[in-house]
Amino acid sequence: MALSNVSRSALRRSMNKATWTQKTAFSAARTYASASKSATLKETFAASLPEKIDQIKRLKKEHGSKVLGEVTLDQVYGGARGIKSLVWEGSVLDSEEGIRFRGLTIPECQEVLPKAPGGQEPLPEGLFWLLLTGEVPSEQQVRDLSAEWAARAEVPSFVNELIDRCPSDLHPMAQFSLAVTALEHESAFSKAYARGMKKAEYWEHTFEDSMDLIAKLPSIASRIYRNVFKDGKVPATLKDKDYSYNLANQLGFADNADFVELMRLYLTIHTDHEGGNVSAHTTHLVGSALSSPMLSLAAGLNGLAGPLHGLANQEVLKWLQEMKNEVGTDLSDANITKYLWDTLKSGRVVPGYGHAVLRKTDPRYVSQREFALKHLPDDPMFKLVSQVYKIAPGVLTEHGKTKNPYPNVDAHSGVLLQYYGLTEQNFYTVLFGVSRALGVLPQLIIDRAVGAPIERPKSFSTEMYAKLVGAKL
């Protein structure tokens, strides 16, 4: 539905809604969730655009010349860490508070986002809606979105054939990226751009591509998993089930209701972690060149596949398994402390601990720990994780080389997946990729809707930087 076709009454309702702020987001979320009508996601987003575009124009006009901070040479050579230079609407990461999705903390999202009938964890469909619009959807809106994704889920036969022809020892993430790239053949954005379209139409085709792409990811991911690790048979998408259930079912785990709940939690908390991480930034960067959502997400997935990003969770699980083999059943404080120090003295890091921004325990870790306490409190690996959580912060603080001695999301996720039988660690990053798509694609839609330009920062050589700071090489 084009913006020009949105009813005047819908526009008035949107313009009259109070602007969301971090202070009032939680109460506003409650109000909206109970009062919302069953407008579609596209209609809701379109109705919010005039106010959003006006906000950006006024902000640039009135404050465009204000200085936000300085850049040091350490930041330039340190991967641009901490430099304020990206616009990311969906989430903001605070060093002490953790992530907020459109102003809502993870516990608040767990409370207010709609759930499946009888379920306890939020549906990722609801978070996608929240990230795109800034509004908590009603249960009916989420049910409708689940149905729309299920209706769009069919994967083109040539993409299935492409996956089937991949050698079984090609890493699942490489296969995943390959399949997403191949979906470029179906891109509404690329076809419309080739025909010629107005800039005001960019977001609509980006929206359609993103919806199609997200809808197909569970089938693509499951086909890779079933080909590489199982019998190659993938169940059909069930039109009356939610996104997470279909993913669990196609992977072969839907007979365990707790695993389905884990997928709902996992997909929700791994979606978005502000825009500076490699997968988010890469998707945004490639999209700024007006590459389609398919090509943009594939680029982001290639970044996610790196050992310093999405592979971290399997590195944690490998390290925990090595620890368990050495300490056995003796999880005493002394034993765990010794193993931690042995790890550090060997020149290695404690995987899953530390974060580029956070200076506290990652709320995503906490949500997974609470899930484990509820569903698998006696699991030996969870007990080991708990002991490490108890002791590692003190050891790392004493060691003195870790700015954040607390666990991040990767310190827990692998243990939960292996408990339910999904033990193939090379596949874990694919699950991360399915989730991350739900976080980066809303921003891509917003980028095109507000007319974000191509990203093009300035670069200098080392010699020029030396000249700028008055140094001699």
UniProtKB/TrEMBL annotation:
Name this protein carries in UniProt: Citrate synthase
Keywords: Transferase, Transit peptide
Originating species: Acrodontium crateriforme
Family designation: Belongs to the citrate synthase family.
Biological process per Gene Ontology, one example term: citrate metabolic process
Active site residues according to the UniProt entry: H309, H355, D410
Top-rank lineage group of the source organism: Eukaryota
GO molecular function: 2-methylcitrate synthase activity; citrate synthase activity
Any GO CC annotation of this UniProt entry: mitochondrial matrix
